[in-house]
């Protein structure tokens, strides 16, 4: 039998999912993350889940991993010292950046501009120049290159990035500088903009290439270490890493292009949510992934997540394809506090993390967190993660009491409910970023909630958004690991053109798409996939002539291949439709093709769906005990159910708590949770407006 492992490392927990490829049977394990060395928690989880399944670790042939190593290196500012080589006259490219200041009125006064990832003292200019058409205007001065690289060597740079003006049109000068760097700076990893991001706009290309170099040391070191640890554990396995766009790449490729991994973890959750929603019969939905440190949300239409061309982590925005995920610092470990100046309760973005964790974990934490508030309200059982973490209700109450005293409530339960209400509003704000602010009504979507803490807050978020049903997938706490284990290899190739539609015929663009497809296929074929295993999709960044931004639009390859003019006509119509949806107006300007790209996907692994035994509507056979919870300002009696004993067709009336190994679901009064035959819980109001 062959087994594959999905591994998702979060800020608080590491989730492991073992899948039997022959039967579809799954085993899951949840353990505390080890921030000092993530591989420690990963190896511990792997050994435990294999033991639970009764197999030797050597039976695992594929490890599919969503990682936050690159993300954490950016957030914690622990990347390499990066040197930047650019064209003479453009040394301040990172300092000038873009004239955008986040925040509202007077944001320019209070916003501290972040320092560039490559210091000005580590930025050098070389003599060369290439035109936008790729013609060499000024030959590369190799003696100058050697002098400038030697200067960076004396500065002690640990990684090198090369971003020359117009290198997207001709990368030969960058390639030659990289060769010289191999002689002058031996052992220093090199990132070239013509490889990392061969697209228009020197600042976006520069910051993305520098970010790639900044995290490359951490990511490559982690990948090598994890590979070695897996080998030491007797596992002859293929390690693949999840990219920000939801596709997989080999560990080697990931180490060379780590900027594509900045949203690796959240992308796995969206992929897993699409699988669960499809099983439950829904194609349009919002995803709500609440973990211990943060909450990630996204919008999915027709089972396809919206893909963006920018990735933002902290203050850094780079040009890299990623699932359009928005993140807020709201999780189970988010710390509640009352600033002395305002005396107004705040929750997050600071987090207690995995160490020391919430006060209720009994590991030395004293700050009141969202998890502690849920313990006080009676929403959580006595143990989490299958018994690995016990909860100290007295410590939780003591921590939350500090909030009650600071706010003058003098009531621990009301203070705890205030903490939960505020964190719910914070997450509602994130959901609005991917729905109403993008022109979508959340009431037209379902809401898929997962992560260790997501199901606990999902019913409340359903009330806030009006998105019904709220879908709680099977094993919601490890759904991101499920997404990692059930996604496919992916690669893409792109080319910047910046030419009006009228400069092309359908046949000319079809030929270019064929070239890009062949380039993107190379890596996939080298990974052992057959040509018949691959599927190809195409997209283009389009704008009106004179605009300073583009909108990504899918390309219909068959229409262009037909060569009768229907390709550009369809692309023009698709762009106008999307532009009107986003901005409510159209222009008469000529349409302009900026960038085209080809995306190649490998086959998606076949994993058998869950199929529950059928029962009636009465869920009483799954009752565990009764408890008292505090909800909507008063104490009420609620039944606690064992999710593993619920049958298809059971309907759980609220108020209720549904407990399982990796998560806990709260069903509020006036709502019910119906058990779907494929294992999901479908929460709706008793009077569901969609029914």
TrEMBL record:
A Pfam family matched in the record: Hydant_A_N
Coiled-coil stretches noted in the UniProt entry, renumbered to this chain: none
Hydantoinase A/oxoprolinase domain boundaries: 205-492
GO cellular component, as recorded: cytosol
GO biological process, alphabetically ordered: glutathione metabolic process
A single MF term (Gene Ontology): 5-oxoprolinase (ATP-hydrolyzing) activity
Domain Acetophenone carboxylase-like C-terminal: from-to ranges: 509-672
Chain ranges of the Hydantoinase/oxoprolinase N-terminal domain: 4-184
Protein name as it appears in the record: Hydantoinase/oxoprolinase family protein
Species in which this protein is naturally found: Arthrobacter caoxuetaonis
